[in-house]
Write a structure and sequence with these properties.
The protein is of the alpha+beta class. The protein is built from 16 helices and seven strands. A hairpin with a 4-residue loop joins strand 5 and strand 6.
């Protein structure tokens, strides 16, 4: 769709004025640096600002420069990310930092295409860093931006359609204030986060209310259009806290894939018709090569991932025999319960780990 220069100029003026008066004070906005912006934008993907802030502050305190991050082992980096979710973000950021230090003299590239070539960097991250840190005219498109544009122009294209990014990118680029792309990009995202919210948007206080076609037509609730997602499956999981003397067994997941590089307690899926305690013993044997026996049931944990949910039964188990021979995990350790906090665990495990501490 075409947007007149007059309309674009009006939107830019109204939005930038609103942003100047209403923007939140966020730690990554206080002292803008390419590395700091990059870290913040990676953390903010699919995660709310209020959740990110403490993680960002702690992460930047521990790794204040890109060389600090590049020189760190992956495990403490994942520990700093523990509970934030989507751990591939941390792994890719760590890998990319290493590349920047080794091949780019530790300088975040001031070039969209070069930056885009780094692990974990897609159009959104590249556009955000290049515009906010360097002032380059690249429009950002995230969920907030799509929602604002869909309502403003009554766009019928589903925002969660797989090939929709280009359409929204073109519209966003045509609206972008080339003189101040950093402020404009952040203003659109801020508007979506604070005013043009998914439910009960604050249209009366919106600086673009007169420019918004959905508002004018009383159709705000109809946008953005979304394809209804299929119901996500629920998997039944059984895991064991295998005790051997005063220590328990933990295993480390492969570095790639879901939750890659994190530590967990051995276990796996309960097969149809199988009792959870039997599944626990079977999975421990298959995964670690040791024989264990269920002692007591600890708790059931429910947790949702992006594409599925789990119901996880947790058992105390006693080690019986065998030597650890891993099939799947890449490492194992027998640790004391009081040392668990040293290792990065998935959020689902974090839901029951406090129970282990309280019983020991």
């Amino acid at each position: 769709m075409k947007i007149s220069s007059t309309s674009a100029a009006s939107i830019q003026s109204l939005l930038l004025k609103w942003y100047k008066e209403n923007k939140r004070r966020l730690p990554w906005r206080d002292n803008v640096s390419p590395y700091g912006v990059w870290v913040s934008e990676v953390m903010l993907q699919q995660t709310q600002v209020k959740t990110v802030i403490p993680y960002y502050l702690e992460f930047m305190d521990r790794y204040p420069r890109i060389r600090d991050l590049a020189g760190a082992d992956l495990e403490p980096v994942l520990k700093s990310w523990e509970g934030l979710g989507y751990y591939a973000r941390a792994r890719n950021l760590h890998r990319a930092a290493g590349i920047v230090v080794r091949e780019m003299n530790g300088i975040v590239p001031d070039d969209y295409k070069l930056f885009l070539s780094l692990p974990g960097v897609g159009d959104y991250i590249a556009s955000a860093v290049q515009s906010i840190a360097f002032g380059h005219a690249h429009a950002v498109v995230d969920g907030n931006v799509k929602r604002v544009l869909a309502r403003m122009f009554c766009l019928d294209t589903p925002v969660n359609q797989s090939d929709v990014h280009r359409e929204f990118k073109e519209i966003s680029q045509s609206l972008l204030c080339k003189q101040d792309p950093a402020s404009f990009n952040q203003a659109v995202m801020e508007l979506g986060a604070l005013v043009c919210t998914p439910k009960n948007p604050g249209c009366q206080g919106c600086p673009l209310a007169r420019e918004c076609r959905a508002n004018a037509g009383g159709k705000v609730d109809l946008f953005p259009v979304r394809i209804r997602k299929k119901k996500v499956p629920t998997h039944h999981i059984a895991i064991g806290i295998v005790r051997k003397g005063n220590r328990v067994l933990i295993t480390r997941r492969k570095l790639d894939g879901l939750l890659g590089g994190l530590w967990e307690f051995p276990g796996g899926k309960v097969e149809p018709g199988e009792e959870a305690d039997r599944a626990c013993v079977r999975e421990i044997l298959e995964e670690t090569g040791i024989k264990a026996e269920v002692d007591t049931f600890l708790t059931r944990v429910r947790h949702a991932y992006t594409h599925f949910k789990i119901e996880m039964d947790v058992f105390y188990c006693d080690y019986k025999s065998g030597r650890v021979r891993l099939k799947g995990p890449i490492d194992h350790k027998w640790i004391r319960v009081e040392d668990i906090s040293r290792f990065p665990f998935p959020r689902a495990n974090l839901k029951f780990i406090p129970l282990l501490a309280s019983e020991n």
